[in-house]
Each structure stands twice: as C-alpha cells, then as structure tokens.
C-alpha cells in the first residue's frame, strides 16, 4: 500500500516533468523579452492545466472538465500599400527637399506657410526709417540625405491666403505667384562663436572660453544690405505707412511656399517648430527725441513657429498655419501603387514590405487562420501577440519609426469606421485590456531594438482576438494596415497625465518625419495561446 502524498512537495512532484519541458521550450525562444513573458504565462498555465495533480483538493470540482492550453502561430501574409491625404497641418515638423532612394524612388516635400503680423514696432512709428535687409529663417533638427553640398531651395509668394474652410493634408497644394528666391543654398553647417564657462559647475571659477557651436537655423536672405527688389520695396513701404494690419500683409504676402529647386534631389530637411522660424525685416530708424540718430531695429513676420499659449493654456487660434505636401515617384514593383486600393505582395519585393512616415507607405496584413480559430467553440484567448521582424541592415538613410498603429480595413484598403457617441471614428485596434469596440486607447505597435540584427515590432492583441472569435467586433475586417502615419490624432489615444504612455505616444504621432522600416514580411506571425473550456 502506497503512502499518501501530502503537502506542497507532494503536489508539485507530478508537475516537475511538465515544468522541465516548459523551461526547455521557453529557453528556445529567440529573445529574452519573449522568454520572460512566456515564463510568466506558462508558470500560471502549468499550475492550472495538464500538469496539475487531479487528486489534489480544490483543483477541480467533481464532474468538471480540466482546462487544456494550446499554442499556435498564425501565418501572416503581407503587402505594401500607399495611403494618401495624410494629416500634415500644424504638425511638430515640416519638410522641404527632394531625395532619391533605391527602394522607394523619389520623395519630394514642399511646405506652404501662412504669414501673420507680430507685435513689433513698425517703421512708421519712427523717423527716417531706412530698409537694411529682409531675411527668412527656418529652424531645423534633421536632414535626410547628405548635408553637403547644401540643399537648394526655392521660395514663392502664395497667390492667395489660406482658406479658412479647407482642411489641408499631404496631397494639398496652394497656387503660388512671385518667386522670391530661386536655387538658394540652405547652409546646414553654420557655426557661431559664443563664450562658455570653463568650469560650469564651479561657484568660484568664472573664467570663460570662446567655442564654436552649431546653429540649426537655415538663413535665406531675400535682400542683403543695400539691395532691394520690387517685393521688398513694397513691403517696407507698407510697414512705413501708418495703419499696417493683417489685411495689408495678406495683400502683400499672404503666405510662403518652400520647395526644392527643380534640379535638386540630394536630401530633405526636417524643420521644427521654434521661435527662430520667422521673417525679419532689418531697418534703421531715428529716436523719437533725436531723429538724426539712426539705430538698428527689426520687424518680425510670423510663420511656422510654435503657437504661443494663451492665459487659458490653450493654443493661440490665430497662430499661422502650415502644411507639408509629400509626393512620391515610386520605382520598381512599387510603381504599381497608383491608388489606395492597390497593393504589392511581398513575393514581388524579395520577401519585404515597407513602412514610412509622411509618404503613406504602409504594410497591409492578412492573418490566415483567424476564421478557422473563431469557428472553434469554447475558446478562451490567454495571450495573442503580433510579431513583425525588421530586416537587418536595410535602412541606410532613415531612422526607424518608434511606433505604428493597426487599422482595420476592407478589401480596397479603406479604413473601417464605427459610430461612438454619435461620432464616426476610425476602427484602429485598441490596446489589450480596453474594449475592442471603443476609441481613444489605440494599441501602440512598438519597436523593440535589441541589437543590430534583432529588431522587431510587436503588440498584444489578446482582447481584440477574443472579441474577434466571439463575433463582438461588428463587421469583421478583411485585413489590417500597419502604419506609422496615424490618421486622426484626436481619437487615437487619450492622455491621462503628463508623461504617461499615451502622452508620449501622442507626442511621437504628432511628429512629421520620413522615418522608415523594412519588414521581413515572410516571418511576420500572430502568436496565440488559448484554452479550451
């Protein structure tokens, strides 16, 4: 007669073989992050499923069926598509330039900027005002492509002001009239000398040294000292006339278009929102009490800069607007993309698909096996993770997008919508743990950068997949579009506190860049763990 097993050691003894198999399985996973996640999951699963001792008290009730956990990788087929009419108005960056790329062809970026008057004193308030120069400034923070030779840019005057009723996007344009500058070099390596403390942490040593620092501002003079054009003469005449107003400026300079010169294709400059971005009219004028003494003065025309906050903390509704137009001339197999409904299978692009912010280049995913999984009864999804490997060493000129989003689409790659609180919103996949049919909690597909040869995007789809197999999503999508260029930011994520994950994601989503990723499409998979009741 055998001795009865009692205590924790007796209950764990029959689990040891399963625990060893589980540990061996986990250690064969490719990354430590997968191993840690799997270890937590399997530890819980082992204690609840097949490795349990059925004779132990309280593990199951008489007549109940023990749970069984299964694991499956669902294959994903991928293709490259191109979305159009992406939101670019008022983003944290604007772009100008032209860049040729071996994989995606030629990308051209032009920016249209509204102009606004400032509170500076106009020359009409002083005596003997004389024009010195007019200079356009554009603060920048990144360049796609080489910085030498300097990019060549054109500046045009808009033919009419921005339309108050028009929503501008990456496909929009505004007619231009006079060319203010053509083929102007945009020097990106400017330096200036400043004095800095030799020991900035010392409270007694105040010695300084003269050092050269980078000036990340493109400077484009319309006229230099002693020069004039018909436009600058008319502008200064208006500034030197009492009653100068926004209406006066709209007649003279309703806005600017910043574009690459016709023959330039060496790079694209990413300009950022900074107070350095502005037009400055330099002039000399006398003092009120001593009109014969001329002193240097300036008048600023605003465009493209950060909107100043009002006393309520809200952005200035009168801040100048701007948007970037992005056009692509795709080459090779991707030249087939003529509309949003078109797609190019990864089999035609050497097993690769693409993501690129700004251009609308995105990857469409079709997950085979979802319908078969949903046809099985009594299924509970324990964990579902979409894993999207990045092709190593395939991204020379561009940084990787730090995040992307999944949109449900139909056969023509059109984003599905649903009505929430009498508002039509995009069906972007929601974060696991939130209602899959809600809005404002978009699942963030994050880049995992483990090494030069081990980069991948991933996102948990546990809640979404459970809703999919229980038919609680509404009409099911025909596929998903993975894109780093979100559509409507206001319904993407809801910021709950400064610095939270949603705030960081929303801040990154508001950047307009050309960051790009090349995906190893043949190895994309949806890894699913589920139990049968």
Automatic annotation (TrEMBL):
This is DUF4270 domain-containing protein. Pfam families: DUF4270. InterPro entries: DUF4270. It comes from Hymenobacter lutimineralis.
């Amino acid at each position: 007669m055998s001795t009865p097993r009692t205590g924790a050691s007796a209950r764990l003894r029959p689990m040891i073989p399963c625990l060893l198999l589980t540990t061996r399985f986990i250690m064969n996973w490719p990354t430590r992050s997968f191993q840690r996640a799997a270890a937590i999951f399997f530890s819980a699963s082992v204690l609840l499923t097949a490795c349990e001792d059925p004779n132990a008290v309280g593990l199951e009730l008489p007549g109940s069926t023990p749970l069984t956990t299964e694991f499956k990788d669902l294959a994903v087929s991928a293709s490259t598509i191109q979305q159009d009419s992406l939101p670019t108005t008022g983003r944290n960056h604007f772009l100008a330039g032209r860049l040729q790329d071996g994989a995606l062809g030629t990308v051209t970026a032009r920016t249209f900027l509204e102009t606004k008057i400032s509170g500076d004193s106009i020359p009409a308030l002083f005596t003997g005002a004389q024009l010195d120069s007019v200079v356009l400034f554009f603060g920048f923070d990144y360049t796609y492509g080489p910085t030498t030779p300097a990019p060549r840019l054109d500046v045009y005057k808009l033919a009419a002001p921005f339309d108050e009723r028009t929503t501008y996007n990456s496909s929009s344009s505004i007619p231009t009239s006079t060319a203010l500058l053509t083929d102007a070099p945009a020097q990106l390596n400017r330096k200036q000398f400043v004095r800095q403390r030799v020991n900035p942490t010392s409270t007694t040593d105040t010695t300084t040294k003269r050092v050269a620092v980078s000036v990340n501002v493109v400077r484009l003079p319309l006229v230099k000292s002693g020069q004039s054009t018909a436009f600058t003469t008319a502008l200064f005449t208006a500034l030197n006339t009492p009653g100068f107003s926004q209406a006066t400026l709209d007649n003279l300079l309703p806005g600017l278009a910043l574009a690459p010169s016709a023959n330039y294709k060496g790079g694209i400059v990413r300009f950022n929102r900074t107070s350095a971005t502005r037009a400055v009219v330099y002039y000399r004028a006398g003092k009120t009490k001593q009109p014969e003494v001329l002193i240097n003065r300036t008048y600023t025309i605003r465009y493209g800069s950060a909107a100043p906050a009002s006393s309520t903390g809200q952005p200035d509704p009168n801040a100048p607007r701007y948007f970037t137009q992005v056009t692509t001339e795709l080459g090779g197999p991707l030249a087939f993309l003529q509309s949003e409904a078109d797609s190019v299978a990864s089999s035609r692009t050497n097993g690769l698909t693409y993501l690129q912010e700004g251009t609308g280049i995105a990857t469409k995913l079709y997950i085979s096996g979802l319908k078969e999984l949903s046809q099985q009864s009594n299924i509970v999804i324990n964990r579902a993770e979409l894993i999207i490997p990045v092709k190593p060493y395939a991204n020379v000129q561009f940084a990787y997008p730090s995040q992307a989003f999944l949109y449900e689409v139909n056969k023509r790659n059109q984003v599905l919508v649903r009505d929430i609180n009498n508002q039509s919103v995009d069906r972007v996949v929601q974060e696991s743990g939130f209602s899959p049919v809600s809005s404002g909690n978009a699942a963030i597909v994050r880049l995992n950068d483990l090494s030069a040869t081990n980069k991948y995007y991933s996102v948990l789809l546990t809640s979404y997949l459970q809703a999919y197999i229980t038919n609680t999503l509404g009409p099911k999508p025909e596929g998903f579009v993975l894109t780093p260029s979100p559509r409507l930011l206001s319904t993407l994520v809801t910021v709950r506190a400064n610095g939270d994950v949603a705030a960081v994601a929303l801040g990154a989503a508001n950047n307009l860049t050309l960051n790009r990723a090349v995906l190893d499409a043949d190895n994309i998979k949806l890894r699913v763990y589920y139990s049968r009741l």
